[in-house]
Each structure stands twice: as structure tokens, then as C-alpha cells.
Amino acid sequence: MLFGTVLLLSSLQMVAQKGAIAGTVYDPDGFPMLGANVVIQGTSQGAQTDFIEGKYQFQVDAGTYTLVASYVGFGEQILEDVTVLPNETTILDITFGEDTGVELALDVTVTAQALERGEVAVLKLRENSDKVQDIISSQEIQRLGAGTAAAALTKVTGTTVVDGKYVYVRGLGDRYSATTLNGLRLPSIDPYRNSAQLDLIPTNLLDNIVANKTFTPDLPGDFTGGSVNIKLKALPERFTFGVSVSTAYNAQSNLRDDFLTFNAGDRAGLGYNDGTLDRPAILDDPRIAELDILASSSARRAGGDDATAALLDQTARSFTNGFGLQQMNTPLDYSISANIGNQFNLGNMPVGAFASLSYSRDYSQYTNGVRANYINPMTGADLQEEFNLRDNQSVEAPKIGGMLGLSFRPSSASTINLYGIYSHQAFIEGRSLVGANNDFGLGGTEDNYFASQTNSFLSRDLRNYVVEGQHVIKGLGNTKIEWAGNYVDSEQNEPDLRFLAYTVNGGFPQINPAQLILPSHFYRDLSDDSYQGKVDITIPFLQAKSRGNAIKFGGLYNTKDRDFNETSYVYENRSGLSFGEANGDPGIYFGDDNIGVIGGEPGRNTVGLYITDNTQLSNSYVGSYDIYAGYGMVTYEVSPKFKVIGGLRLEGTKIDIVSDLAALSLNPEDYEAHIDTLALLPALNLVYKLRDGQNIRASFSQTIARPNMREVAPFGSFGFIGEPPVFGNPDLSVTSIDNYDLRYEIFPNAGEVIAISAFYKRFRDPIVTTFRNAGEQQFTWTNSESASLYGLELEFRKSLAFIGSSFTNFTFSSNLSYIESVQDIDDKEYRDALDIDPDFPQTRPFNGQSPWIVNANLGYATQESGWDAFVSFNYFADRLTSIGAVGASDIFERGRSSLDINLTKKINNITFSARARNVLNPKYETFSDFKGKEYLFSSYERGREFSLGISYGL
After folding, report:
1. Any residues with CB less than 8 A from the CB of 261 and at least 6 apart, and which?
2. C-alpha triplet 431, 432, 437: angle, nearest 5°
3. Do domains 1-109 and 333-573+616-953 have the same CATH topology?
4. Of 582, 600, 833, 899, which residue is least crowded by CB atoms under 10 Å?
């Protein structure tokens, strides 16, 4: 890596004014032409297309040229007036006609490599694909102003993103979506989720995003809604260098003096814990266990035992006792990024190198939000309010990301790529909830209310090391071998999450242990180590009949080891000031004068607040998650218009979970979970080409959905106010799904598409969230008997030049999805609900499923003036977010619209940008309808964001 970086820098002056020409050459049927020649007329300067994807690229001085494309058996193609600008790449995709014509798809981008980064070219990929898929190019991502892969995916047909990071395709939750990075599975680092956090991947690293919506055996078998593959940016064919800075303002979050925060240490601004939030080291002192210091009885014993008193005092004072929230002045959001890349020769072998680094710091806040909960009292037509709280939340989010890459091209038929990716995020949160709580008889008045506050620091790290290769063996009929392997080290840490709850009754604050969870410190850490390897071999056959005929087979192995730990400690009060005597001031109550040994004399010690261990060993676990697969498939062109793609995938699943409590239990099997299955997954895809640029696609396949480790881990996790405990279910089984798809698509002109799709899915043993059979409200996961889903998708993308010459530079694109889903409610839950509400339905939609999803985009771009404008609109309808209390209606997230505007102006190598996000500023709300009346569970606004940026690029 260092050697490549040195060569990059040394090449700066030598190549800074050069440009490049790159692209892909196609035959009349749309297949890449391997070994075609593209040269500047009258010279030998040019390149031959590779034997892997039919791509070519070469550097050239800025100017205007005439190119000649040639291939054995075809007449030479003359391409005149090809303009190359300094420090830019001209994308020139060439299609040989049946006779002497040539079609051009010409585009210009700063760091393009051939086909896969232009909007025109990705549609060519989609037209010739063997499956139903949608593709978004990095060019379009840049125009959308999307900062992460998650934000970019909101523009893909039928796709929504939940919580800003989890992809839902066709209304199905993240359980039914697979996420891969360069074809390798990207693991989740959230124990409650199956799919990866896509906000970890910045868009400046991306080449394109492909959402496959039908299954073929070479794809992961555990997707139903979609398999999203994020392809990393190809390494540059010329010297590139760029740096960008931006700043953003949101009236709710920036330049405020009421932003809630706490002292998280000196490195918190970079998103790292410098040790301030570490679990105290004294807790590992063997004397703690010998003297039983963390037991409730230790304070009583400390009264007459000086050794116990001294260690109790030292332990209590070792914790960070700052439970109060502070207010700070916030600056503007800001970000900075840089990248550098080049291509050079190592002997006669071309080598490419690329590096990028980014840092950002964002602030988000809402005040006077709503957080409420309701239950059915079985006494009338209305739900009863449990609590209704005013919600104030502030989150500071620093992020650091980087990538290093090397690409080797030993020959035109072989390439090897190495990548290293690092992504780090932190979320420093202060949250305050104040208001009515009927469980405690508190009406929410000035002297009669419930309150809680949380200080939280959560960090996520992803380190992904990838090596991959593609090789074409010319002597074996251009047999193609693709292989890849990676190691992913991911972590999620929550050091010293502090939770404080209290009541104020008649103006008197108190912490009543009979009612409330005592003030607590939580320490949680999760680490995943994942290894993957895959190989795909494609053998062409009957090439004289069709170049698309091929046999493909391969295999995959993925193993992940997890270690999850949770410890918690609470404060008990022996003889210190009560919370009321401290006037409800956390600074006084947890102050030095009220912690540990606060008075007395040797042998007669007075103890105030002290620490006891509230850790549940069952809440910590280790687990392994192994997937192994092998497949075979055939692509056969029955006729020039009809293509069949069929095959079978065998995919095994082995999940083992062992709670830390198992080793201490007489019945360890009660604290273990095991799944070991093998699934046979057939797939059949049919493509009928009505005429050039028109396809009908039909498919049938079987896929699966797996539970994640947390869902089968047999323990209950603590929920904060309004969040019931959640228990894993070790008896969960794998879901089987039948998928039916039909699509008609038209590609009228370069860069244009019109498509309509229909789909139906039937689920056996779907995994659903339901109530746990217990006295108090608890949730768990279970397999219901069946479920189904069907829907329609419409997509339209077209240049507006047909309206008139004034609209030549305008492009309009839109997509719409209508989806209906039904899942059976667990029998036990249904019977319990009928006792409360005789009209309670026996079905509900899928969690996170929206019946309507709409995207509409209007773009304007001119190469001559350098202006690029993009207006983007998105809407999703109400979607189920969580199950309601027994007998009450389920809780839905209210549908909302969003509008973003992006404007850029390029002057030479400098690009200025102005963006407005969340222009409509809709409310983020969850609600429930019960017997015709609406109940609001949560509500807040995110505010409008306005940003300015400037970038310089070669």
C-alpha cells in the first residue's frame, strides 16, 4: 500500500494535465466484445478491450480526436469529434451495429472507469441482466447528494430505509434482504438486526448499487425482498486527486445553546472513548469478590468492617457519577474528505491504486417531542394512557471512514483487487423525558410528574479486508473464474450508558425502588469476526448459437463468531441524602459528599450511595453463525428472443448460541440454542425479448429467511421507559418462501427506461414478533403458520427533449410501488386479544411494510456550462413499526414525504454545491387507531438542513 501511495504522489506533476478515454465495446446483441481495438486515428495510441468485461481505457493529452474501433469480422467504426478535457475521463461506450453504424453513449465524469459509473451504462447492464434488478450509478448518487449507501437506496424502486440505515425492499423487513459488498456478505453489528448498517458506507467509495429482486442460484439464498450488492469504486485509469469540504445548518440543531450532552472524554469529538467511559478496573480486583462488595448487604457490613468500608468507598467513587445532562453551544455540521489515485506500470503489468479518507461531525436534535404509551383497560371504547412524556433528544455523531485499494492486471484476461475499508461511527446522546405517568398516579403537572434521563455513547467499527480476482482462460473457450475472500472485524460498544428515573409528587422528588429501576450504569460490547470465501466459474457453451449460453457453478462459505457481553450496576442508598433531600439535583445526589463512606469513625462507618452488581449472566452470550452453499445454473438462449436461466442452490445453516449462564446451570440446555438445516433452493428465470430494447421477464424461486443470533438467544433484555423486555426464542426455525415475479421493461433510448413489475410471495413459518406468555408485557419472536405478499411496481425514466429543444438537458424519473401483505397472528396472542376486543383481526401486515412507495426526480445537467441541478421527492405510506399491547391496535409509523434539492456548478477543477434536505420537514410520528380513535405514541421533527460545499478534483 505504501509503495503505491509513494508512486501516486510522485506522478502528480507528470500526469496532472492528462485526460483519459474509457468505456465498453458491445456487439450487436449487447454482449461485451473481448479483444476489440480502440485507437486514435492515424496512431497506435489506444487500447484493446479486456477479456473479462470488454472494457478499454487509455490516457491521452487533452484535445479533440477521431477514434477507430475494430474487431475481426466487423467493419471499422469511425468516431469523430471525441473531446477529452484535462483531468477528466471521457466515457465512450461503443455498440457495433449489424452493418456499418455505431451507437454512442457519451458521458463525462471525474473518476469514471468505463461502464458501471454512468447512468446510461447501468441501464445497459440491467437490460442484459439475467434477473429482475434495479441499479443506481455513482453518478446519480452524487447528483442526489446522498452521503451514505443507505441514503442512496431510498431512490431505488420499491426500496425504503428504516432508522436511516436498514434497507427494506418491497416492503419486507431487513430479515428478508441480503446485503453484500463486492459480492461478499456484509455482516450486521446490531444484535437485533439481520442486515448490515448501510450508513456505515460513505458514497464516495461506491461504484454502483444493484438491487436484485429475483433470485438466481449464484446469489445468497436468504433474500426475498431483494439482494443489494454495493460495488466499491473501480480503481482509476489516470491520476486523480480530490479534496472536498462542506458545512450544513439546521435550525433545530446547529448554533443552539440548549443541546443536551455530557462529558464523554477528550476523544469524543472523533467518536472514540479515551477511557473516560470504561468499566472501572477495580471491579476486576479479586478482593471485590472476596468481600462481596457488590452485594446489597455490603453497606450494612461496611458499617463495622473498615476493610469492607474502604473497598466499598473506592468502588463507588471509581464510577463516573455524572448523571446530569449539560447544555452546550453547537457549531455547524461539517465534513472533509480527500482521495488520491493513479495507474502505473510494474514492469509490464498495469497497477492501479486508490486511497480515500473522510471525517464528519453532525448534530441532530429535537425538542418537545412526544413519547406515550396506551393499554386496553377492557372497560370501554378508549385506550388508557400509561404515560405521556415530553421528549428532548440531542445526538452528536462524529464519523471517520477510509479506504485503500490496489488493482493488478497481469494480463488482459486477469485482474486481482485488494481493498481495505475502515468505518467508524459514534453517537453521543443526551435524552430527557418528562411528563404524566398514570402507573404512578402522576398527572404531568408542574409539581406532579415522572422524569428520566439517559446519557449514552454508542460506537460502531467496521474493518473489512477484501481480496478478489477475475480470470478468463482463453484456451478453455473463455471460461471465467471469479473468486473472493474477506475478513470482517466489526464491533459495537456502549460503554457506561447511564439511566436515571425519578418521580416528583407534590413537588417532592424521589427515587422509589419499589416503583422504578434504580440509577444504573450499563456496559455492553459486541464483537463479530467474520470470514468468507466464494468462487464462481462460468463456462460458455454453444457460442456459435448465442454468446449468452453458459454454465455457471460455484460455492461459498461464511463463518461468523460473536461475543456479546452486558454488565450493569445500580446505586443503592444506605444512609445518604435521599433524592428529595438533594432537591432532585443529580449533581448533589451523586456528589462526592453522598457517595461511598460519608462519615462516622473507624468501626462505625456511615455509608451513602454504593454500587451493587445487577448483571444478568444470561444476557451475555457467545455464538457462531455458519453458512455454506454450492450451486449450479445454466443460461441457455433457446432462440434469439427467448432465454432460460435455471438452476439449484444448496444452502446450509448452522447457528449455535450459548449463554454465559449455561456453565453455571444444572440444565445448560435451557440456556442454549441450535439450528442446523440444509435447504434446496430451485430457481427459474425466463427472458423474452419482444424486440430490441424490450423484455418480458418471469421467474419462480424458493428462498429462505433465518433468525439472527439475538432472536434465538434465550434471555430477556432490559427496556427503558415504555420499552418492554424482549426475549429470544431458541425454538425458532428457518422460514421458507416461494417467489413469483413478472416484469415488462422498455429501453426506448440511451439512459431511458419504462418498466412494470408484478410479484407474489408465499411464506411458510415466517418469523414474527409477538407477545411472550408472561404476566407482564414482554415480546419475543415466533414462527407463525403462513403469510403472503403481492404488489406492483412502475418505473419511468426519460429525457424531456421530446417536449422541445429547451428541455434537452432535463431528465425526469419516477417509480411507484403498491404492496399488500398479510401475516397470521400467533394463536395465543389472538385468543388473548379476543378476550379484550371481540373485533380484533387475526392478521396484520409485515413489520416495516408500506403499501405505497413513491420516488420522483427531476434533473438538469449541461456539460458546457457546468450546472447540475436535481430535485428529489420521496413518499412512503403508513407502515407497521411495533405490535400494540394485548387487545390494542398495532402501532404504525405515519407515512411522510421528503423533498431534497441539490445544485452544483463546476468551474474548471472546482465544484461548488448547495443543498437543501428535508425541505418539507414532515413530522416523524407513530400512532395507533383503536375503535375509530387515533392515539399518538411518538412525534418529533428533524428540521430543514441547508448545506454548502466546495471540492477540488483532478
Report:
1. 325, 326, 327, 328, 394, 396, 428, 430
2. 135
3. no
4. 600
User: How large is the average pLDDT for residues 523-540?
Assistant: 93
Q: Which helix (DSSP H) or strand (DSSP E) does residue 300 occupy?
A: helix 298-302
Count helices and strands (H / E) in the chain.
Answer: 11, 52
What is the chain's length? 954
DSSP-derived secondary structure letter, 731: T
Q: Is the dihedral of CA 25, 29, 34, 36 positive or negative?
A: negative
Cell of 308: 469492607
Q: Which three cell numbers stand for residue 907?
A: 468551474
Name residues whose C-beta falls within 8 Å of residue 157's C-beta, 6 or more positions apart in sequence.
Answer: 134, 211, 755, 793, 795, 815, 817, 855
The 3-state secondary structure of 539-587 reads: EECCCCCCCCCEEEEEEEEEEEEEEEEEEEEEEEECCCCCCCCCCCCHH
Grid cell of 895 as nine digits = 407515512
Closest Cα partner for 739 from 178, 176, 211, 185?
A: 176
Q: What grid cell was written down for 27? A: 456487439
Contacts of 403 (CB under 8 A, 6+ apart): 205, 232, 354, 355, 356, 419, 420, 421, 422
Give the pLDDT band of residue 172 (cuts 50, 70, 90). low
Which pLDDT band holds residue 44 (cuts at 50, 70, 90)?
confident
Q: Any alpha helices (H) in 202-348, and if so which ranges?
A: 286-290, 298-302, 306-318
168-181 burial, b at 16+ Cβ within 10 Å, e below that, comes to bbbbbbbbbbbbbb
689: cell is 425479448
The residues pairing with 751 across neighbouring beta strands, listed in sequence order, are none
Residues paired with residue 448 on neighbouring β-strands, in sequence order: 445, 505
- Break the chain into its structural domains and give their ranges: 1-109, 333-573+616-953
Strands (E), 213-322: 226-232, 240-250, 259-261
CATH topology of domain 333-573+616-953: Maltoporin; Chain A (2.40.170)
Give the contacts of 899 (CB within 8 A, at least 6 positions apart). Answer: 871, 872, 873, 874, 918, 919, 920
Candidate ranges 42-56, 290-304, 747-761; pick with highest mean pLDDT = 290-304
* Residue of 377, 233, 258, 273 lying closest to 329 (CA atoms): 258
The rounded mean pLDDT for the chain is 83
Percent of the chain with pLDDT over 90: 40
Buried b (16+ CB within 10 A) or exposed e, 631-641: bbbbbbbeeee
* Between 814 and 636, the higher pLDDT residue: 636
**Is domain 1-109 given the CATH code 2.60.40.1120 in the classification?**
yes
Statement: residue 621 has pLDDT above 70? yes
Q: Which amino acid is at 131?
A: K
Q: How confident is the model at residue 160 (pLDDT cuts 50, 70, 90)?
A: low
One-letter amino acid at 233 equals K
Amino acid letter, residue 264: A
Q: Give how far Cα 464 sits from Cα of 157, 164, 310, Å.
A: 28, 21, 47
Distance from C-alpha of 96 to C-alpha of 780, rounded to nearest angstrom: 59
**Model confidence over 674-694: pLDDT tens digits?**
999 999 999 999 999 888 778
With contact defined as beta carbons under 8 Å apart, do 633 and 685 qualify? no
**Cβ(196)–Cβ(208) under 8 Å?**
no
Distance CA 191, CA 243 (A): 36
The highest-confidence range among 179-188, 370-379, 740-749, 858-867, by mean pLDDT, is 740-749
Nine-digit cell at 210?
444493484
Q: Is 931 left (phi over 0), alpha (psi -120 to 50) or beta?
A: left
